[in-house]
């Protein structure tokens, strides 16, 4: 107890080559060697990605902004009442109208 954590996890491999643990990875990054190692890989550019949701297929609810609550005015008084938003799921999300049905 009270000793410094000396774990060597995570162990990082790049294309089957042992890079090392997190400290070694940070050293490679700071020295610029990590970017040299990664140069041999082709950069992936996804131009087909949905601009609205980032291909997550869901967006924050446009009615409640993800809070899952919707405020409605009582028609008989000036009071407001908080209700469960009926436009989103249990996580405050809606299906992305741009890409959800396309896939």
Structure description:
The structure is a single chain. This protein is an alpha+beta fold and 103 residues long. The chain is 16% helix and 22% strand. The protein has helices spanning 22-31, 33-38, and strands at 12-14, 17-20, 58-60, 69-73, 80-84, 93-95. The strands form 3 sheets. A two-stranded antiparallel ribbon has the order 1-2. The protein has a two-stranded antiparallel ribbon with strand order 3-6. Strands 4-5 form a two-stranded antiparallel sheet. β1 and β2 form a beta hairpin. The longest helix is centred in the first third of the chain and has 10 residues, at 22-31. The chain is elongated and about 70 Å long. The termini are far apart. The model has no long low-confidence stretch (mean pLDDT 81).
């Amino acid at each position: 107890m009270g000793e410094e954590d000396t774990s060597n996890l995570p162990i990082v491999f790049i294309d089957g080559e042992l890079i090392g643990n997190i400290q070694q990875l940070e050293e490679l990054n700071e020295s610029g060697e990590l970017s040299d190692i990664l140069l041999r890989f082709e950069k992936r550019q996804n131009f087909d990605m949905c601009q609205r949701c980032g291909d997550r297929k869901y967006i924050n609810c446009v009615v409640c902004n993800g809070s899952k609550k919707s405020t409605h005015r009582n028609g008989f008084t000036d009071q407001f009442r908080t209700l469960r938003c009926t436009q989103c799921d249990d996580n405050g999300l809606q299906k992305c109208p741009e890409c959800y049905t396309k896939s």
